[in-house]
Fold this protein.
Amino acid sequence: MNAPLPWQTTQWRTVGRARAGGRLHHALLAAGPPGIGKAQFLEALAATLLCDAPREDSACGECRSCRQHAAGTHPDCTVLSPDPLQRAAFSSYPGQRCQHDSSRKKPATIISVDQVRELRERLHASAHYGAHKLAVLLPADALNTAAANALLKLLEEPPDNTVFLLLSQRVASLPATLRSRCQLLRFSTPPASVARTLVEQDDPASALALDLAGGAPLRARDLLAQDVGAVWQTVCQGLAGLLGGASDPLSLARECVKLPPDTLATTLHGWLRQALRRASGQPGDAAVAAAAPARLQAFAQELDQFLRLQEHPLARELALQRLFYPLWAGNTTPFSAKPEQS
């Protein structure tokens, strides 16, 4: 019996024993930080549950069900996700189940109540192959309030032979009533020695990517694919110029708005972490310019706000200008996160 990834053996065995003993919970919630393989775990589990002839608690990979699941066409598996292209393990499942429309300028950001209602109708129908029916939510964090309430009703009275597979990166943000209906499977980052083996060591930015990813190897690989080394250099040089008065929020915002949004957000977090270490007298990345603690505190508050509102239709460049304002050397109110109103 092999887990999908080397550090997932405990969780895989827990689910395998429950399944073998006929005690598999009807709702499993995989929780943990991004980039550690939660989606891969659920994909492997889904394949095993749907397989016509599983081998030692693993999918055979050859039967009709396995072929259909690999193609994203299995009729007994329904995937709900705002943007399936961000969830590679299940991205092949068709758009009407994922609310994905290629004509949209931006992917959806929520799982809606209409999606959950469609899910309910599908689950109350008989299974096509007489085995499990699966409902996969990637991530459950994307449920809006109405959708979470609708899902709760399904979890309280689950249809026969149905298993819900939920993924969460912010499990504390899910309603307590929803969490209480699930068996929680906690995942964490692998040991550093294991993580390093999964990241391209020939890339000079591999150590930086792992550090910014918090030791999550799959997240680090994504960052490397988005040229995180160049983004890090741009951010460090730009913020140093801001702190030294050689640049201003408007100029830096124009430069940063061109960078990959997700990698930029991760890099800004990493820069703040390193700057706080230097401000407290600890060793930090030499590329990170020193800054007064008060300015860093104000920047941290703005960064939290920026990340929560970055999907808002507000112009991104304007949001970046506001974010950079507390660090600007030309700011006449250095200890305030907000500019004075005229």
